[in-house]
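Annotated sample (chain length 157).
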Amino acid sequence: MAAPRVDFYVTDPAAGDGARLPLVCRLVDKAHAAGQRTLVIGDDRRELVVLDELLWTSIDGSFIPHELLAEGDDGAGAESPVLLASHAPLAAPRVLLVNLCAQVPPIATEFERVIEVPAGDPAGRQLARERFRTWRRLGAEPATHQVGGQAAAARPL
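Output written by the structure step:
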């Protein structure tokens, strides 16, 4: 299997971590508009709960049907085109993965495309560099996109 297309969306360090989740909302909205089934996976369940709320409220005039999976839910009964999970649901679609984890998840190579959205703090940026190197070892040629603060996250990418 060929390595997926991997894109890193890096926010302005001055924006801190406050720009990360609005950017994820914009990216998920764009993917949904393109008909791409999406899995957002993250290590931090609290961050996923915040993202779940933001997906309902952050983009005026946009409706992003999504579901926050319970811990251990394999996603088999999920009908939403966007799933949020803190684990790798076995039945999740393998089209687009938005990775909010500190590491490259083992299932990531099963996807057609992966979007990495690093945390804005120095530790998050260091982990992103490590993931970038991991993707290269896995045969991908990751692309990096510099994105401004929250204002940039609100406009189309």
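Annotation: Residues 5-140 form a domain with the Rossmann fold fold (CATH 3.40.50.10110).
Annotation: The radius of gyration is 14 Å.
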